[in-house]
Amino acid sequence: ISIATLQLLLLIVTYPQTTLSFTNGGLSNNRRNHTPIKMGWSETWNDILNGGPKRWKVDDINAKQTALTHITDATSSDAPLRILCPLAGDDQFVYYAWSQGHDITAIDIVPDALKAMRFQFGENNQEDWSSTSSNGGGGVVWKHKSGRATLYEGDMLMKRPELQSSFDVVYDKDSFGALNLDMRRPYCQRLSEFVKSDGLVYVEVKNKESGREFGPPYHVEKNDLLEESSFGGAFDYVKSLGEVYPLKMGGFKQMGHILRRRLRK
Fold first, then answer.
1. Which of 34, 152, 183 is nearest to 86 (CA)?
2. Is 250's pLDDT higher than 80?
3. Highest mean pLDDT among 13-17, 183-187, 245-249
4. What gap in Å lies between CA 205 and CA 243, rounded to an integer?
5. Percent with pLDDT over 90 in the chain
6. Which end of the chain is more exposed for a tag (fewer CB within 10 A), N or C?
7. What torsion, rounded to 10 degrees, do the Cα atoms 263, 218, 83, 4 define?
8. Would you report the helix, strand and coil content of the chain in percent, each value rounded to 5?
9. pTM of this prediction?
10. Rounded to an integer, what distance in angstroms lies between the CA atom of residue 226 and that of residue 236?
């Protein structure tokens, strides 16, 4: 695991003096003088899966249906899509899109999160999955017997030549809300490698009424996405989707955008 990825894994669950911290009621300003609390990413997922605060998670299946509708409306083909879900956690979108006939690949570094995702495909059907070691020490790869669901248990920022130019669409649920600014470049670089020329990225981001200078979660606008060091280096802007679905957390809006991969030279 790269040092950069380890920094990412601590990012969302670090509560510095002047940033927003997660609470049972959502997110609240935390400005007390105390030592920052750090919880490893695996421990955070263990807490979530054992009934702790859901933090950033959105478990409303209607939100997943809305996301897939936006994705299919933006494509010019009625054929099943090959969709990449980076930093996936146990996002229900993966199972939902698979159930609608699409080919899904998810990447996450936390084994328990991907285990929870596999259980969405059937708690009593775990024999439907097989695992192998990824090439180049890239973790474990889980494949569903349908041939349409693959889960990479490893570092999203690793080069993976087998995924080069493989995906019609990327489903990006608020990565910019979590990623520190200096991690956006390598993240977008990987996506630019994995998506096909003319492929799409469906991006969800959070807009905040206040505390926009603090994060995570970070306040993200169109211009942030299109910086040359981010998606702007390889993607063009297609359109804004506005607010894609309501959030339970007050003071936040979940906004959507569509980007398109430029043709490779």
1. 152
2. yes
3. 183-187
4. 10
5. 63
6. C
7. 80
8. 30, 30, 40
9. 0.82
10. 8
